[in-house]
Amino acid sequence: MAYSIDELARMDSIIKRYPRSRSAIMPLLHYVQSLAGYVNNEGIELIAQLLSLEAAEVSAVASFYTQYKRTPVGEYHVGVCTNTLCAVMGGDAIFAGLKEHLGVENDGVTSDGKVSLEHIECNAACDYAPVVMANWEFYDNQTVQSAKDLVDSMRTANPIPPTRGPDTLVTWKEASAVLAGINDGKAHEGIQAGAPTLLGLKISKEEKR
Amino acid sequence: MTTTEILEMITVVIDGFEVSVPKGTLVIRAAEQLGIQIPRFCDHPLLEPVGACRQCLVDIEINGRAFPKPQASCTIPVEPGMIIKTQLTSDVADKAQKGVMELLLINHPLDCPVCDKGGECPLQNQAMSTGRSESRFSGTKRSFEKPVSISSQVLLDRERCVLCARCTRFSDQIASDPFITLNERGALQQVGIYENAPFKSYFSGNTVQICPVGALTGTSYRFRARPFDLVSTPSACEHCASGCDMRTDVRRGKTLRRLAGDDASVNEEWNCDKGRWAFKYVTAIDRLKHPLVRNDAGVLVEASWPEALAVAAQGLKANASAVLVGGRATYEDAYGYSKFARIALNTNDIDFRSRLSSDEEREFLASHVVGSTTTYRDIDRADHVLLVGFEPEEESPIVFLRLNKQSRKRALKVTAIASKLSIGVEKLKGDFVKTAPGQEAIAITRQVLSAKSVILVGERACESAGALSAVAALADTTGAKIAWIPRRAGERGALQAGAIAHLLPGARLVSDVAAREDIAAFWGVDSLPSTPGRSSDEIIAAVHSGAIGALVVGGVDPLDGAHIPESLAALEKAFVVALEIAPSEVTMRADVVLPVAAITEKSGSFLNWEGRARSFDAAVLDSLNRSDLRILSMIAQEMGAAINFSTVTAAAREIATLGTWDGARASMTPVSAPDMPVLAAHEFILNSWRRLLDLGTLQKGEENLAGTARQTIAVISPKRAQIMEVVDGDLLKISTAQGSVTLAALVEDIHDDAIWAPRNSRGSQLLVHLGVGHGAVVRVTKI
Amino acid sequence: MKLVPVLSAHWDEKDSFTIQAYTRHDGYKASQKALAMEPDALIQLVKDSGLRGRGGAGFPTGMKWGFIPQGDNKEHYLVVNADESEPGTCKDTPLMMANPHVLIEGCIIAAHAIRAKTAFIYIRGELTHVVRRVNQAIEDAYKAGHLGKGIEIILHVGAGAYICGEETALLDSLEGFRGQPRLRPPFPAIAGLYGMPTVVNNVESIASVPAIVLHGAEWYQSMGTEKSKGTTMYSLSGHVKNPGQFEAPLGITLRELLELAGGVREGHRLKFWTPGGSSTPIFTDAHLDIPLDYEGVAAAGSMLGTKALQIFDETTSIIRAVLRWTEFYKHESCGKCTPCREGTWWLVQILRDLDAGVGTEEDLNKLLDICDNIAGRSFCALADGAVAPIISSLKYFRQEYLDQLANKGPLFDPDESTLFAPAKVGA
Questions:
Q1: Which chain A residue is nearest to residue B185, measuring alpha carbons?
Q2: How far apart are CA B390 and CA B590, in angstroms?
């Protein structure tokens, strides 16, 4: 098995978070995804072994959740919200634009392995519609052009930073580690809230004044 | 049981009819009591309710308060004051059911004409009763590759699947083999295996049987028959002592499939894959069709029945004779051999134990097993189950399922005295008392049991001197119940029938004058032989010493026993009358060979390990083959010592009339355990058992079944592996003076002094190649 | 004063998510007070406050806590449902981003009340930065000694499954299974996580507790309407001039909220809206004055839900909107039960045809009949949500469906609905 002692220790600490070990399946899947870029068979078999389960039980869980990828995705995984509100507000146009611009279909990966594309469901940022996610960081109020600029920046040197997120966009693997519950020390980066989040508060303060 | 359980009854009204059912009964089953059939797919009485298919929706109100929505009757227990309206009296329930049926069918392929399930399909049937005549769906159906093989013996057609999860729930809840799972989600949800791990469960066939559609089908049965062309006969399983109720389906004289039958007190509705799929041996092997007699040139030639019977009778009359009968004989046949030995041969030299055995075992069987009444119910109620020389999942799978049920239901404490932690015991979450092979007696003595405990003793316990004595002592002091669980289906019956040297039928001791007289009178003979009989090992020795000159051998495989070379030589030396279904190591050495009926061709019964009769009729009706019993009767007639069995039924009636002896019972002289041998660096003590799926004769001809057998490996402990610098997969050569086998190593939880290998698997036929099975010191080298 | 920021009171401070900022505004004083109280007194306090579940169903929070058996010698668990996924819903996410400590403090109080030693926060997985903020906040709360002295919090991150917002599916997911709903009974209060008594509460419900403890039940129930007490987050999105979060006492109307948000997009008018996410039947401009509390919305034939007010103007095709929602439910159906799994598969196909202008009036009746065979026939409420937009859209916009069929094609230009529509003109 190609896992280092540190990695195995990390997995052990994930298991120890929980009163019952099976609960650790999901963070462990995020974690093996952070190592391989996707949930590979080695990861599934190791998790099964660590939790005394059959591999079938682990893969059954992995296949239920859309964030676990069973094939490699790009270094930057781009999700365009095409649920009703975002779609109407421009998500459909953005998704169509990106497909054309990147030359990939839904769930496709660019040939350089940098960017993968997926249309996603509502991501709880409707007041910032239309929303694009990259490695599950927010890119608010996107247009077709801004989304194209974003993926271009990913394929060159410096990805454009998220609207509400850390100062720089982390990679897919790094983001997966965060989702496995590993603190990357970036919680303090970025704004505390965007303007729409603060709108009611602002109006209320103005009313008081 | 002496205490009567008082059930709280609840009265409800279903479609206007009152019915009283025990508290906890589900609405769907209360309706069944009234003969009201509510359609269903996911519901199964032996699985946890899941409420997934939604086919069984009914309207319910309790004390005047109606549920706002129709409820799944398979998930709701009855409550006092419930008024239930099914599809028969509620338009809402009727529409709900029709709506669900329509939805179930939108993605179902229209391939009933080529589907194995067609004609016996719950979906097909209920679509007729509950569906619309025409579909309103005109869209695109979901499509999957079809079928995919999820093991060598099970095919999966995901298009037909209605996702009731019976199969996955069975595998998880009943078999504890979660190798198949629901995968993906939503409309793409599908049953499947993990890509690198096929559905290698010993119980996988049950999923085929309980699948309410044609999604799971047996590879061997695919496209073989339509259900309405099959003739079904209730039968019993001949593969082990669990005693499964079965159904055998035959078309034009050929068995095409076997299914688990329903018997709540024994196998519930399950069986193992061997019982389900290993039936081709009857046709796969080259059956004997005519009697054979060895001519003056020493060649076996075809003979007429009268000629063969005459030669047999003559040879048996001319010699001191003994009987060796295999453990697969039916109860009636074993009774026939028993009576034949005593009357026609005037001897007590008879032994059904055509395997490793001991005198200690013979005493144990006579003193603690014959007539014993331990049952599955005792397992259900036990506070603690002790396993001795017994690996339930491999050696009596339904006992395993029963233990597993209690383990899951109420964390039944199971303790295994064994050298190696087995997969089965792990699944039972059993305590593993790690014991060096041969030292079991000491470990048994240390166990703490109560009168509510049950000791399950495998036939292998006889291979460890002192173990059975320790079991007997433990049971005697604690009041724990003993259940002896042999591997073969006929052994318990043969014991009851007196097909053993010191017992007459019905637990009567040969040494007991009153018992002998009782049987003699019953059989209408003046007297019965009083000389104590010989065991199978002693019979072989007596042939070599010249004390015995002739043998009647029925259903024995000499390669199953100890001292194989001696046994084969004895068969060469003696005058042998063989009763067999196919040419064998015995028939090729016999002087007279008499073909007999296979199990599907005759009626009869087995006594399972409980001593419970499992009777069956001939599934193949037009066979000309006769049962052993009938042929023995003809030989006896020819010998002038009639035993008078015209039919199996007559024999069964005779046995029933005879009953069990209430006179003197045998006692047991304890045997003590041997000292632990001193092992050299490369020496191990051998531990082995037969796996469920292996090279057993009755599994011949079924390659799909063989494809799910467990890997042949040799197991050693981590400590020994480290010393020998062995890792998983390295080749280990195990040798004795007689020979050797070479197997891939697996490092697992096993006693440091022990090495485990399967007893009769491909590449590992220990009795043939090593001449030993359990407890012998073997030399192991890494190669 | 229409708006009363309580939860959101200090979100405009740049470091609002830090423990320093939180303590600056009386953070962790409520838990200090609560831990000195008898658990039963706390439950009573929350009952008295009138706080109701903010996850959608509106079940009284204090009563839910009160269902946990007392003195049963079992582990109890608190589980926070932070799996915010209902389309249109975007309140818990900014809350956790801007002030995760109020959630942690709420957990400490609630855990104490229900006699739980362990609380889980189940956050949906598509929120990397929210996970960072909450994880860091938990670490800081441990360092500050608020956690680890009798109450532990375990952060659990989901992985993309709307159904895990259903509380029993969430529990299965948390136990390491596929997130499919469980049979009820037993209810989580009796046998929840690991079979133990468990309370599952929404983020906003738990986050509302510290203020109640600090300021008292009377203060809380002085806000809101007769049966819907306190303040809550209203989230306006879509075709409004200024979308965003508005914290107001329960009972405010959309007309009032729209005024605060600058009205519907310039030059356009309201066509339809959801009161509480896509699973709540839609409303039209006829419903502008309905009080947005649990009773008011229910009386008008919908549900308050998550107060996710998605606003659509007259450029939006109702059929396209409904199709998208239906596709969402199809994608998110867990697959367990037939009506939802197969029904959403079928509904999408019919709606795609209708969106393309293919079909007859009979298809509309068929659509409604299929909805009737799905709603209330499924295992959980997901499918009820799935048919809500369809049924309600046919109730208010049947003519548009017919017009589209008559037109044999879409009646609306999707470009006109976009945020960047003006820029697109002539482009």
A1: A64
A2: 34
